[in-house]
Design a protein that fits this description.
Blueprint lengths: L1 E3 L16 E3 L1 E2 L7 E2 L3 H6 L1 H30 L6 H18 L5 E4 L4 E4 L1
Antiparallel strand pairs: 1-2, 3-4, 5-6
Length: about 120
């Protein structure tokens, strides 16, 4: 979605792709949590920030495509051409990274040494 640019008037941001607004990627049903960018950073390179916002917003759809392709590949992995096998391997590596939840840190006894579980 787009939020109103509160830090500049339209004349000061005519070089922006969408003068008067900036992108906000909402991750909460209440429309308030998510990804935002500081105004100064947006003003420095608005096209880059717009690109980042589109990448973030499209990630769930792209991930669904990757999952679908992995399911198709899993049905007959040996029948896939080598290039597709390599792409599937890379996609699976990324999917595992996305799905991985780091182990919670645990405190050992009374000595306050923290180690990863």
């Amino acid at each position: 979605m787009r939020a109103r640019n509160k830090w500049q008037n339209n004349d000061d941001c005519a070089h922006h792709p969408y003068p008067g607004t900036y992108p906000v990627v909402v991750t909460d049903a209440s429309d308030w949590g998510g990804w935002r960018v500081p105004g100064a950073e947006y003003d420095r390179d608005p096209r880059r920030i717009e690109h980042q916002a589109r990448l973030i917003a499209c990630t769930p759809a792209l991930r669904a495509i990757v999952r679908e392709l992995l399911e198709l590949f899993a049905e007959a992995p040996d029948d896939a051409p080598p290039a597709v096998q390599e792409l599937a391997r890379k996609a699976l590596t990324i999917e595992r990274f996305i799905s991985e939840v780091p182990a919670a840190e645990q405190t050992l006894g009374d000595n306050d040494d923290i180690v990863a579980a």
